[in-house]
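In this section we turn from sequence analysis to structure. A common task in structural bioinformatics is to predict how a protein folds when a small molecule is present, because the ligand can shape the pocket around it. The inputs are simple: the amino acid sequence and a SMILES string for the ligand, here adenosine-5'-triphosphate. Study the lines below before reading on.
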Amino acid sequence: MYKKKGLLIVLSGPSGVGKGTVRKALFEEPNTNYEYSISMTTRSPREGEQDGIDYFFKSKEEFESLIDAGRLLEHAEYVGNYYGTPMQYVEEMIEAGRDVFLEIEVEGAKQVREKMPEGLFIFLAPPSLSELENRLIGRGTEDADVIATRVARAREELEMMHLYDYVVENDDVQNACDRIHAIVTAEHCKRERVEELYKQMLRGE
Ligand SMILES: Nc1ncnc2c1ncn2[C@@H]1O[C@H](COP(=O)(O)OP(=O)(O)OP(=O)(O)O)[C@@H](O)[C@H]1O
Ligand SMILES: Nc1nc2c(ncn2[C@@H]2O[C@H](COP(=O)(O)O)[C@@H](O)[C@H]2O)c(=O)[nH]1
């Protein structure tokens, strides 16, 4: 029996912009069809982070063997660590009709665009670079030198914004959630309408 596939939603944007915060708030909304793809990383867990919930924490050797085995949809090196998306979970959820969110940086998003161009690519942008830096400082999870490296990387990432289907400013968590939810809903409507019109044309109607 034909089952409608889910949407792959790539939520990208610089470290500290609020991707995790906005995604968690989105997932608390009722009547959504969202799944979250837990990434793999070689970064050490932060205080309170749990393996299998925040990330799958891997050694460098484990991560490299997953790359070699072709088990990652995408992967990137970010400020001295590997990050990547396990392929199988994403494929299974999309087949099951679920909308799957990836929360990834821009190099990984480029790879996903090549492999799955039918995805929906959303860039979460900060109100300003100084606000981004304040958020990273306020989060209190990185040392000053790592924050400086992440902010420098953010400047490069912001130059890639135009490659995305949508740019959403995270000025306020609820506003950003509402915008993303509206984009996903509109995208579904568009795709369903296009599919229906193509089917009508094929039937000669
Ligand atoms: N709209 C907002 N206004 C003010 N603070 C925010 C907003 N969104 C998120 N924050 C705060 O900014 C900090 C960074 O947020 P978060 O960890 O969600 O970012 P991230 O993009 O997921 O970072 P990373 O990519 O490093 O995982 C957190 O302390 C969070 O509470
Ligand atoms: N390319 C990928 N990037 C990812 C993935 N999971 C997370 N990330 C991004 O890495 C940076 C740093 O994350 P942090 O948890 O150390 O702050 C941030 O931009 C994340 O969005 C992934 O699977 N692939």
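The first strand starts at residue 8 and ends at 12. As an exercise, try to locate the residues that line the adenosine-5'-triphosphate site and compare them with your own expectations.
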